[in-house]
Design goal:
alpha+beta; Glycosyltransferase; 4-stranded mixed sheet
Length: about 550
Protein backbone atom coordinates (compact mmCIF):
# COMPACT_ATOMS: atom_id res chain seq x y z
CA UNK A 1 0.00 0.00 0.00
CA UNK A 2 1.34 3.42 -0.95
CA UNK A 3 0.72 6.19 1.57
CA UNK A 4 1.01 9.76 0.33
CA UNK A 5 1.44 12.26 3.13
CA UNK A 6 1.31 16.01 3.44
CA UNK A 7 2.64 18.21 6.18
CA UNK A 8 -0.16 20.73 6.59
CA UNK A 9 0.00 23.41 9.30
CA UNK A 10 1.98 21.13 11.57
CA UNK A 11 -0.23 18.07 11.06
CA UNK A 12 1.07 15.12 9.07
CA UNK A 13 -1.91 13.42 7.42
CA UNK A 14 -1.98 10.25 5.39
CA UNK A 15 -4.46 9.47 2.66
CA UNK A 16 -6.39 7.60 5.35
CA UNK A 17 -6.55 10.71 7.52
CA UNK A 18 -4.48 9.14 10.33
CA UNK A 19 -2.30 11.57 12.23
CA UNK A 20 1.28 10.28 12.28
CA UNK A 21 2.95 13.23 13.93
CA UNK A 22 2.35 16.47 15.77
CA UNK A 23 -0.63 15.10 17.74
CA UNK A 24 0.33 17.53 20.50
CA UNK A 25 -0.47 20.41 18.15
CA UNK A 26 -4.15 19.63 18.64
CA UNK A 27 -6.01 20.87 21.69
CA UNK A 28 -3.33 23.45 22.51
CA UNK A 29 -5.92 26.01 23.66
CA UNK A 30 -7.98 23.68 25.86
CA UNK A 31 -6.73 23.12 29.39
CA UNK A 32 -8.21 19.65 29.83
CA UNK A 33 -5.65 17.20 28.43
CA UNK A 34 -6.53 13.75 29.76
CA UNK A 35 -9.54 11.62 30.52
CA UNK A 36 -10.07 10.75 34.18
CA UNK A 37 -11.81 7.36 34.06
CA UNK A 38 -15.07 6.90 35.94
CA UNK A 39 -18.06 4.59 35.60
CA UNK A 40 -20.27 5.33 32.62
CA UNK A 41 -23.78 6.34 33.75
CA UNK A 42 -26.44 3.64 33.42
CA UNK A 43 -30.12 4.35 33.00
CA UNK A 44 -31.25 1.77 35.57
CA UNK A 45 -28.96 3.27 38.20
CA UNK A 46 -29.83 6.92 37.57
CA UNK A 47 -33.50 6.87 36.62
CA UNK A 48 -34.57 7.81 40.14
CA UNK A 49 -32.19 10.79 40.16
CA UNK A 50 -33.18 12.27 36.80
CA UNK A 51 -35.78 15.03 36.56
CA UNK A 52 -39.19 13.33 36.65
CA UNK A 53 -41.93 15.27 34.83
CA UNK A 54 -45.53 15.42 36.02
CA UNK A 55 -47.99 16.16 33.22
CA UNK A 56 -51.38 14.56 33.66
CA UNK A 57 -52.76 16.31 30.58
CA UNK A 58 -50.62 14.15 28.25
CA UNK A 59 -49.24 11.13 30.09
CA UNK A 60 -48.01 9.66 26.79
CA UNK A 61 -45.57 12.58 26.57
CA UNK A 62 -44.16 11.53 29.93
CA UNK A 63 -43.71 7.98 28.63
CA UNK A 64 -41.95 9.38 25.56
CA UNK A 65 -39.70 11.44 27.85
CA UNK A 66 -38.49 8.30 29.62
CA UNK A 67 -38.04 6.47 26.32
CA UNK A 68 -35.85 9.32 25.11
CA UNK A 69 -33.62 9.02 28.19
CA UNK A 70 -33.45 5.25 27.81
CA UNK A 71 -32.22 5.69 24.21
CA UNK A 72 -29.83 8.48 25.20
CA UNK A 73 -28.14 6.31 27.80
CA UNK A 74 -27.40 3.74 25.10
CA UNK A 75 -25.34 6.40 23.36
CA UNK A 76 -23.14 7.52 26.24
CA UNK A 77 -19.50 6.61 25.67
CA UNK A 78 -16.15 6.71 27.36
CA UNK A 79 -13.19 7.84 25.27
CA UNK A 80 -11.65 4.94 23.39
CA UNK A 81 -8.02 4.19 24.32
CA UNK A 82 -5.68 6.18 22.13
CA UNK A 83 -8.42 8.48 20.82
CA UNK A 84 -7.16 11.53 22.65
CA UNK A 85 -10.69 12.35 23.80
CA UNK A 86 -10.83 13.80 27.30
CA UNK A 87 -14.46 13.44 28.44
CA UNK A 88 -17.37 11.03 28.40
CA UNK A 89 -19.81 12.01 25.70
CA UNK A 90 -23.20 11.47 24.14
CA UNK A 91 -23.00 10.22 20.57
CA UNK A 92 -25.14 11.27 17.61
CA UNK A 93 -26.31 7.67 16.99
CA UNK A 94 -25.79 8.20 13.27
CA UNK A 95 -22.59 6.41 12.27
CA UNK A 96 -19.08 5.79 13.64
CA UNK A 97 -18.26 9.48 14.01
CA UNK A 98 -19.11 12.22 16.48
CA UNK A 99 -20.72 15.30 14.93
CA UNK A 100 -20.24 18.83 16.14
CA UNK A 101 -23.67 20.34 15.47
CA UNK A 102 -25.52 17.17 16.49
CA UNK A 103 -23.62 17.20 19.78
CA UNK A 104 -24.39 20.88 20.38
CA UNK A 105 -28.12 20.15 20.21
CA UNK A 106 -27.84 17.01 22.33
CA UNK A 107 -26.20 19.02 25.11
CA UNK A 108 -29.35 21.15 25.26
CA UNK A 109 -31.50 18.35 26.64
CA UNK A 110 -28.66 16.82 28.65
CA UNK A 111 -28.35 20.15 30.48
CA UNK A 112 -31.50 19.36 32.45
CA UNK A 113 -29.72 16.37 34.03
CA UNK A 114 -26.38 18.06 34.62
CA UNK A 115 -24.07 16.81 36.13
CA UNK A 116 -25.51 13.27 36.18
CA UNK A 117 -24.97 12.57 32.48
CA UNK A 118 -22.38 13.45 29.81
CA UNK A 119 -23.80 16.62 28.33
CA UNK A 120 -21.93 19.86 27.78
CA UNK A 121 -18.69 18.01 28.50
CA UNK A 122 -19.23 16.12 25.24
CA UNK A 123 -17.96 19.24 23.47
CA UNK A 124 -14.61 18.88 25.27
CA UNK A 125 -13.58 16.29 22.72
CA UNK A 126 -13.94 18.79 19.88
CA UNK A 127 -11.87 21.39 21.73
CA UNK A 128 -9.27 18.68 22.45
CA UNK A 129 -9.00 18.11 18.68
CA UNK A 130 -8.74 21.78 17.69
CA UNK A 131 -5.89 22.51 15.27
CA UNK A 132 -3.26 25.15 15.88
CA UNK A 133 -4.88 27.56 13.43
CA UNK A 134 -8.19 27.26 15.30
CA UNK A 135 -10.02 24.91 12.93
CA UNK A 136 -12.25 22.22 14.46
CA UNK A 137 -13.60 19.46 12.26
CA UNK A 138 -17.35 19.00 12.43
CA UNK A 139 -16.99 15.20 12.23
CA UNK A 140 -14.40 13.10 14.10
CA UNK A 141 -13.95 9.34 14.36
CA UNK A 142 -15.51 8.05 17.57
CA UNK A 143 -12.95 5.27 18.09
CA UNK A 144 -9.86 6.97 16.67
CA UNK A 145 -10.24 10.64 17.57
CA UNK A 146 -9.11 11.45 14.01
CA UNK A 147 -10.84 13.98 11.78
CA UNK A 148 -13.11 12.29 9.23
CA UNK A 149 -10.65 11.61 6.38
CA UNK A 150 -12.83 13.08 3.63
CA UNK A 151 -12.89 16.42 5.44
CA UNK A 152 -9.08 16.65 5.61
CA UNK A 153 -7.40 18.86 3.00
CA UNK A 154 -4.73 16.28 2.22
CA UNK A 155 -4.05 17.97 -1.13
CA UNK A 156 -3.01 21.23 0.56
CA UNK A 157 -5.21 23.23 -1.82
CA UNK A 158 -7.05 26.45 -1.24
CA UNK A 159 -10.47 25.95 0.35
CA UNK A 160 -12.69 23.51 -1.54
CA UNK A 161 -15.67 21.23 -0.98
CA UNK A 162 -14.85 17.52 -1.11
CA UNK A 163 -18.42 16.43 -1.79
CA UNK A 164 -19.51 19.54 -3.58
CA UNK A 165 -22.78 21.40 -3.67
CA UNK A 166 -24.76 18.39 -4.93
CA UNK A 167 -23.29 19.13 -8.34
CA UNK A 168 -19.79 17.60 -8.32
CA UNK A 169 -16.92 16.59 -6.05
CA UNK A 170 -13.75 18.52 -5.19
CA UNK A 171 -15.16 21.88 -6.25
CA UNK A 172 -13.00 24.90 -5.43
CA UNK A 173 -14.14 27.96 -3.55
CA UNK A 174 -13.66 31.06 -5.68
CA UNK A 175 -13.14 34.12 -3.54
CA UNK A 176 -14.56 37.31 -5.05
CA UNK A 177 -13.03 40.59 -3.96
CA UNK A 178 -10.37 39.09 -1.71
CA UNK A 179 -7.32 36.88 -2.03
CA UNK A 180 -7.52 33.22 -1.10
CA UNK A 181 -6.26 32.99 2.49
CA UNK A 182 -2.84 31.51 3.16
CA UNK A 183 -1.70 29.04 4.28
CA UNK A 184 -4.45 26.72 2.97
CA UNK A 185 -6.85 25.35 5.57
CA UNK A 186 -6.28 21.98 7.22
CA UNK A 187 -9.89 21.00 6.52
CA UNK A 188 -12.22 21.18 3.55
CA UNK A 189 -15.32 23.33 3.44
CA UNK A 190 -17.43 20.23 4.20
CA UNK A 191 -15.80 20.07 7.64
CA UNK A 192 -16.40 23.72 8.54
CA UNK A 193 -20.08 24.46 9.02
CA UNK A 194 -22.69 25.25 11.67
CA UNK A 195 -20.40 26.98 14.19
CA UNK A 196 -22.79 26.84 17.15
CA UNK A 197 -20.45 25.69 19.93
CA UNK A 198 -20.72 29.04 21.74
CA UNK A 199 -24.53 28.97 21.56
CA UNK A 200 -24.50 25.51 23.13
CA UNK A 201 -22.20 26.77 25.88
CA UNK A 202 -24.54 29.68 26.65
CA UNK A 203 -27.58 27.39 26.66
CA UNK A 204 -25.76 25.27 29.22
CA UNK A 205 -24.79 28.30 31.29
CA UNK A 206 -28.45 29.35 31.43
CA UNK A 207 -29.26 26.16 33.33
CA UNK A 208 -26.04 25.41 35.19
CA UNK A 209 -24.62 28.85 35.96
CA UNK A 210 -21.13 27.36 35.54
CA UNK A 211 -18.95 30.39 34.83
CA UNK A 212 -15.77 28.32 35.21
CA UNK A 213 -16.90 26.29 32.22
CA UNK A 214 -17.05 29.50 30.18
CA UNK A 215 -13.55 30.41 31.29
CA UNK A 216 -12.31 26.99 30.16
CA UNK A 217 -13.79 27.19 26.67
CA UNK A 218 -13.31 30.89 25.90
CA UNK A 219 -9.94 30.66 24.14
CA UNK A 220 -10.84 27.58 22.03
CA UNK A 221 -14.01 29.37 20.95
CA UNK A 222 -12.25 32.61 20.03
CA UNK A 223 -9.59 30.71 18.05
CA UNK A 224 -12.30 28.79 16.20
CA UNK A 225 -14.19 31.99 15.41
CA UNK A 226 -11.11 33.66 13.94
CA UNK A 227 -10.26 30.57 11.84
CA UNK A 228 -13.75 30.56 10.32
CA UNK A 229 -13.51 34.29 9.72
CA UNK A 230 -10.20 33.75 7.91
CA UNK A 231 -11.30 30.92 5.63
CA UNK A 232 -15.05 31.29 5.18
CA UNK A 233 -15.52 35.04 4.78
CA UNK A 234 -16.24 35.95 1.18
CA UNK A 235 -15.16 39.28 -0.27
CA UNK A 236 -18.63 40.72 0.38
CA UNK A 237 -18.15 40.22 4.13
CA UNK A 238 -20.62 37.31 4.34
CA UNK A 239 -19.77 33.63 4.83
CA UNK A 240 -19.35 30.66 2.54
CA UNK A 241 -20.92 27.25 2.93
CA UNK A 242 -21.66 24.22 0.78
CA UNK A 243 -24.36 21.70 1.65
CA UNK A 244 -24.10 22.74 5.32
CA UNK A 245 -25.35 19.38 6.60
CA UNK A 246 -28.62 19.93 4.71
CA UNK A 247 -27.56 17.05 2.50
CA UNK A 248 -30.05 17.12 -0.40
CA UNK A 249 -31.59 20.56 -0.01
CA UNK A 250 -32.46 22.27 -3.31
CA UNK A 251 -30.65 25.35 -2.01
CA UNK A 252 -27.26 23.68 -2.39
CA UNK A 253 -26.49 24.22 -6.12
CA UNK A 254 -26.95 27.97 -5.68
CA UNK A 255 -24.06 27.98 -3.19
CA UNK A 256 -21.59 26.44 -5.66
CA UNK A 257 -17.97 27.71 -5.68
CA UNK A 258 -18.29 30.28 -2.93
CA UNK A 259 -21.91 31.26 -2.50
CA UNK A 260 -22.85 32.68 0.89
CA UNK A 261 -25.32 30.91 3.14
CA UNK A 262 -27.83 32.83 5.21
CA UNK A 263 -27.43 30.20 7.94
CA UNK A 264 -23.62 30.32 8.21
CA UNK A 265 -23.62 34.13 7.96
CA UNK A 266 -26.19 34.46 10.73
CA UNK A 267 -24.43 31.78 12.78
CA UNK A 268 -21.26 33.86 12.67
CA UNK A 269 -23.25 36.82 14.00
CA UNK A 270 -24.64 34.55 16.72
CA UNK A 271 -21.11 33.30 17.44
CA UNK A 272 -19.84 36.86 17.84
CA UNK A 273 -22.76 37.82 20.10
CA UNK A 274 -22.20 34.75 22.27
CA UNK A 275 -18.48 35.49 22.52
CA UNK A 276 -19.29 39.07 23.50
CA UNK A 277 -21.59 37.77 26.26
CA UNK A 278 -18.97 35.32 27.51
CA UNK A 279 -16.27 38.00 27.43
CA UNK A 280 -18.46 40.32 29.51
CA UNK A 281 -19.13 37.57 32.04
CA UNK A 282 -15.37 36.99 32.30
CA UNK A 283 -14.61 40.70 32.69
CA UNK A 284 -12.98 41.04 29.24
CA UNK A 285 -14.68 44.29 28.27
CA UNK A 286 -12.49 45.29 25.33
CA UNK A 287 -12.87 41.85 23.74
CA UNK A 288 -16.62 41.99 24.34
CA UNK A 289 -16.83 45.28 22.45
CA UNK A 290 -14.79 43.86 19.57
CA UNK A 291 -17.07 40.85 19.15
CA UNK A 292 -20.17 43.02 19.48
CA UNK A 293 -18.88 45.27 16.67
CA UNK A 294 -18.19 42.19 14.53
CA UNK A 295 -21.76 41.04 15.04
CA UNK A 296 -23.30 44.38 14.11
CA UNK A 297 -21.12 44.75 11.01
CA UNK A 298 -22.06 41.35 9.60
CA UNK A 299 -25.72 41.76 10.57
CA UNK A 300 -25.89 44.95 8.48
CA UNK A 301 -24.33 43.15 5.52
CA UNK A 302 -26.85 40.32 5.80
CA UNK A 303 -29.75 42.75 5.80
CA UNK A 304 -28.32 44.71 2.90
CA UNK A 305 -27.56 41.73 0.67
CA UNK A 306 -29.69 38.77 1.72
CA UNK A 307 -33.05 40.34 2.56
CA UNK A 308 -35.49 40.49 -0.35
CA UNK A 309 -37.92 43.40 0.00
CA UNK A 310 -40.40 41.90 -2.47
CA UNK A 311 -40.50 38.36 -1.07
CA UNK A 312 -40.03 39.57 2.53
CA UNK A 313 -37.56 36.81 3.30
CA UNK A 314 -33.83 36.08 3.61
CA UNK A 315 -32.07 34.15 0.84
CA UNK A 316 -28.65 32.66 0.19
CA UNK A 317 -26.36 34.41 -2.28
CA UNK A 318 -24.70 32.81 -5.28
CA UNK A 319 -20.96 33.22 -5.80
CA UNK A 320 -21.82 36.16 -8.11
CA UNK A 321 -23.83 37.86 -5.39
CA UNK A 322 -27.31 37.11 -6.74
CA UNK A 323 -30.05 36.04 -4.34
CA UNK A 324 -30.82 32.33 -4.61
CA UNK A 325 -34.49 31.56 -5.36
CA UNK A 326 -35.09 28.79 -2.80
CA UNK A 327 -36.98 29.51 0.43
CA UNK A 328 -35.68 27.33 3.29
CA UNK A 329 -35.59 27.12 7.05
CA UNK A 330 -32.05 28.58 6.93
CA UNK A 331 -33.54 32.10 6.90
CA UNK A 332 -34.69 31.72 10.51
CA UNK A 333 -31.15 31.82 11.86
CA UNK A 334 -31.68 35.57 11.40
CA UNK A 335 -34.04 35.49 14.39
CA UNK A 336 -31.74 33.47 16.61
CA UNK A 337 -28.79 35.73 15.75
CA UNK A 338 -30.95 38.86 16.22
CA UNK A 339 -30.13 40.05 12.73
CA UNK A 340 -33.71 40.87 11.71
CA UNK A 341 -35.38 44.19 12.47
CA UNK A 342 -38.79 44.20 14.12
CA UNK A 343 -40.57 44.48 10.76
CA UNK A 344 -38.43 41.75 9.20
CA UNK A 345 -39.20 39.50 12.16
CA UNK A 346 -42.93 40.11 11.59
CA UNK A 347 -42.55 39.05 7.97
CA UNK A 348 -40.69 35.87 8.98
CA UNK A 349 -43.39 35.13 11.56
CA UNK A 350 -46.06 35.59 8.89
CA UNK A 351 -44.40 32.81 6.86
CA UNK A 352 -44.38 30.56 9.92
CA UNK A 353 -48.14 31.07 10.10
CA UNK A 354 -48.71 30.58 6.36
CA UNK A 355 -50.09 27.08 5.61
CA UNK A 356 -48.82 27.35 2.04
CA UNK A 357 -45.21 27.51 3.21
CA UNK A 358 -44.25 26.61 6.78
CA UNK A 359 -47.46 26.18 8.84
CA UNK A 360 -47.94 22.55 7.91
CA UNK A 361 -49.52 19.80 10.02
CA UNK A 362 -46.09 19.30 11.60
CA UNK A 363 -44.15 22.50 12.01
CA UNK A 364 -41.64 23.59 10.81
CA UNK A 365 -40.60 21.97 7.49
CA UNK A 366 -37.06 22.68 6.34
CA UNK A 367 -38.22 23.59 2.83
CA UNK A 368 -41.19 25.84 2.12
CA UNK A 369 -44.17 23.82 0.88
CA UNK A 370 -44.59 26.00 -2.21
CA UNK A 371 -41.12 25.08 -3.49
CA UNK A 372 -41.00 22.67 -6.45
CA UNK A 373 -38.98 19.97 -4.70
CA UNK A 374 -41.00 20.00 -1.48
CA UNK A 375 -41.69 16.45 -0.32
CA UNK A 376 -44.80 16.01 1.85
CA UNK A 377 -43.26 12.84 3.30
CA UNK A 378 -40.05 14.61 4.26
CA UNK A 379 -37.47 13.64 1.67
CA UNK A 380 -34.72 14.32 4.22
CA UNK A 381 -33.92 18.04 3.74
CA UNK A 382 -36.61 18.58 1.11
CA UNK A 383 -39.31 19.27 3.67
CA UNK A 384 -38.76 17.03 6.69
CA UNK A 385 -39.16 18.46 10.18
CA UNK A 386 -35.85 18.25 12.03
CA UNK A 387 -35.55 18.86 15.80
CA UNK A 388 -32.42 21.07 15.54
CA UNK A 389 -33.92 23.53 13.07
CA UNK A 390 -37.23 23.59 14.95
CA UNK A 391 -35.28 24.42 18.13
CA UNK A 392 -33.46 27.21 16.30
CA UNK A 393 -36.80 28.67 15.16
CA UNK A 394 -38.31 28.47 18.65
CA UNK A 395 -35.37 30.14 20.36
CA UNK A 396 -35.29 32.80 17.65
CA UNK A 397 -38.97 33.62 18.16
CA UNK A 398 -38.34 34.10 21.87
CA UNK A 399 -35.67 36.70 21.05
CA UNK A 400 -38.39 38.86 19.49
CA UNK A 401 -41.09 38.29 22.09
CA UNK A 402 -43.14 35.77 20.09
CA UNK A 403 -43.29 33.47 23.09
CA UNK A 404 -46.82 32.26 22.36
CA UNK A 405 -45.91 31.14 18.85
CA UNK A 406 -42.69 29.56 20.12
CA UNK A 407 -44.69 27.49 22.60
CA UNK A 408 -47.30 26.64 19.97
CA UNK A 409 -44.62 25.25 17.64
CA UNK A 410 -42.92 23.34 20.46
CA UNK A 411 -46.20 21.74 21.54
CA UNK A 412 -47.06 20.92 17.93
CA UNK A 413 -43.73 19.12 17.64
CA UNK A 414 -44.36 17.26 20.89
CA UNK A 415 -47.88 16.35 19.78
CA UNK A 416 -46.82 14.88 16.44
CA UNK A 417 -43.84 13.11 17.98
CA UNK A 418 -46.19 11.71 20.62
CA UNK A 419 -48.62 10.39 18.02
CA UNK A 420 -45.81 8.73 16.09
CA UNK A 421 -44.41 7.35 19.34
CA UNK A 422 -47.75 5.73 20.15
CA UNK A 423 -47.80 4.15 16.68
CA UNK A 424 -44.17 3.02 16.49
CA UNK A 425 -42.92 2.87 20.07
CA UNK A 426 -39.83 4.92 19.32
CA UNK A 427 -38.29 8.27 18.35
CA UNK A 428 -37.13 9.20 14.86
CA UNK A 429 -34.34 11.24 13.26
CA UNK A 430 -36.81 13.49 11.42
CA UNK A 431 -40.54 13.63 10.70
CA UNK A 432 -42.90 14.13 7.79
CA UNK A 433 -44.36 17.65 7.54
CA UNK A 434 -47.82 16.72 6.28
CA UNK A 435 -48.63 13.61 8.30
CA UNK A 436 -48.03 12.19 11.77
CA UNK A 437 -45.35 9.87 10.43
CA UNK A 438 -41.58 9.45 10.51
CA UNK A 439 -39.80 11.19 7.69
CA UNK A 440 -38.89 9.18 4.64
CA UNK A 441 -36.03 8.45 5.04
CA UNK A 442 -35.37 8.64 8.80
CA UNK A 443 -33.48 6.55 11.35
CA UNK A 444 -35.42 5.10 14.28
CA UNK A 445 -34.38 4.90 17.96
CA UNK A 446 -32.72 8.25 17.30
CA UNK A 447 -31.52 10.02 20.44
CA UNK A 448 -29.48 11.73 18.93
CA UNK A 449 -30.76 15.24 18.72
CA UNK A 450 -34.36 14.06 18.56
CA UNK A 451 -34.27 13.81 22.36
CA UNK A 452 -34.57 17.58 22.49
CA UNK A 453 -38.36 17.43 21.93
CA UNK A 454 -39.44 14.76 24.42
CA UNK A 455 -37.09 16.06 27.13
CA UNK A 456 -36.43 19.80 26.78
CA UNK A 457 -39.71 20.81 25.13
CA UNK A 458 -41.75 18.84 27.66
CA UNK A 459 -40.06 20.55 30.60
CA UNK A 460 -39.82 24.06 29.14
CA UNK A 461 -42.93 24.44 26.99
CA UNK A 462 -45.53 21.92 28.18
CA UNK A 463 -44.80 22.01 31.92
CA UNK A 464 -43.39 25.52 31.53
CA UNK A 465 -40.17 25.53 33.59
CA UNK A 466 -37.54 28.02 32.42
CA UNK A 467 -34.37 28.53 34.40
CA UNK A 468 -32.09 31.56 34.60
CA UNK A 469 -29.13 30.35 36.61
CA UNK A 470 -27.30 33.66 36.40
CA UNK A 471 -30.14 35.33 38.32
CA UNK A 472 -30.85 32.23 40.42
CA UNK A 473 -34.41 32.42 39.14
CA UNK A 474 -36.88 29.83 37.90
CA UNK A 475 -39.96 30.94 35.96
CA UNK A 476 -42.90 28.56 35.86
CA UNK A 477 -45.59 29.15 33.23
CA UNK A 478 -48.57 27.21 34.57
CA UNK A 479 -50.67 26.50 31.48
CA UNK A 480 -52.28 23.13 32.14
CA UNK A 481 -55.57 22.91 34.08
CA UNK A 482 -54.54 19.60 35.69
CA UNK A 483 -51.65 18.31 37.78
CA UNK A 484 -48.25 19.39 36.47
CA UNK A 485 -44.70 19.84 37.67
CA UNK A 486 -41.38 18.06 37.95
CA UNK A 487 -39.63 16.14 40.66
CA UNK A 488 -35.87 16.64 40.94
CA UNK A 489 -35.68 19.54 38.49
CA UNK A 490 -32.05 20.69 38.32
CA UNK A 491 -30.71 24.20 37.76
CA UNK A 492 -27.90 26.37 39.18
CA UNK A 493 -26.78 23.53 41.43
CA UNK A 494 -30.24 23.15 42.99
CA UNK A 495 -32.43 20.06 43.04
CA UNK A 496 -36.06 21.17 43.24
CA UNK A 497 -39.37 19.32 43.21
CA UNK A 498 -42.42 21.29 42.10
CA UNK A 499 -46.05 20.27 41.80
CA UNK A 500 -49.18 22.27 40.98
CA UNK A 501 -52.64 20.80 41.48
CA UNK A 502 -56.11 22.29 41.04
CA UNK A 503 -57.93 23.14 44.22
CA UNK A 504 -61.28 21.37 43.85
CA UNK A 505 -63.22 23.85 45.97
CA UNK A 506 -61.89 26.87 44.12
CA UNK A 507 -62.38 25.99 40.45
CA UNK A 508 -59.43 27.14 38.37
CA UNK A 509 -57.07 27.90 41.25
CA UNK A 510 -53.83 25.94 41.57
CA UNK A 511 -51.94 25.04 44.72
CA UNK A 512 -48.16 24.93 44.28
CA UNK A 513 -45.85 22.82 46.44
CA UNK A 514 -42.08 23.38 46.25
CA UNK A 515 -39.31 21.35 47.88
CA UNK A 516 -35.80 22.68 47.42
CA UNK A 517 -32.30 22.07 48.72
CA UNK A 518 -31.47 25.78 48.51
CA UNK A 519 -32.79 29.31 48.10
CA UNK A 520 -33.89 30.80 44.77
CA UNK A 521 -36.50 33.11 43.27
CA UNK A 522 -39.55 31.41 41.77
CA UNK A 523 -41.74 33.41 39.42
CA UNK A 524 -45.17 31.90 38.86
CA UNK A 525 -47.11 32.88 35.73
CA UNK A 526 -50.76 31.80 35.46
CA UNK A 527 -53.67 33.10 33.38
CA UNK A 528 -51.88 36.32 32.49
CA UNK A 529 -50.85 37.12 36.07
CA UNK A 530 -47.52 36.60 37.80
CA UNK A 531 -46.15 36.55 41.31
CA UNK A 532 -42.72 36.05 42.84
CA UNK A 533 -41.96 33.62 45.64
CA UNK A 534 -38.73 33.58 47.63
CA UNK A 535 -38.05 29.87 47.96
CA UNK A 536 -35.92 28.66 50.84
CA UNK A 537 -34.46 25.27 51.62
CA UNK A 538 -37.21 22.89 52.67
CA UNK A 539 -40.86 22.66 51.66
CA UNK A 540 -43.40 25.40 51.18
CA UNK A 541 -46.88 25.71 49.74
CA UNK A 542 -48.41 28.68 47.95
CA UNK A 543 -51.17 29.46 45.48
CA UNK A 544 -50.71 30.35 41.84
CA UNK A 545 -51.56 33.97 40.95
Amino acid sequence: MVCVSLLCAGLLVTTHGVARAAETSQGRYFAKKEYAPRPLPKFADLRDQLPSPIYDEKTEWVRMYWKAWELAFRNFHEPAPGSGFVSQFIDAAFNQNIFQWDTCFMTMFCNVAHPLVPGIGSLDNFYAKQHLDGEICREIGRATGVDFPEWVNREGKSLFSRWGWNVGPNDPVIYAGREAPQPPPILTLDGLNHPILAWAEMESYRLTGDAERLRLVYEPLTRYYRALEKYLQQGNGLFITDWASMDNSPRNPSLKNGGCGVDISCEMVLFARNLADIARLLGKRDEARTFARDAERVAKLINRQMWDDQRRFYFDLTQKGERAPVKTIAAYWALLAQVASGSQARDLVAELQNPKTFARLHRVPTLAADEKRYDAKGGYWQGAVWPPTTTMVIRGLENYGYNGLAREIALNHLDVMGRVFQQTGTIWENYAPDAAEPGKPAKNDFVGWSGIGPILYLLEYAIGLKANARENELTWHLASPVRQGCERFRFNGHVVSLAAEPVASEGKHLQVTVKSDGAFKLRLVHQGRSKSVSVKAGEQVCSAP
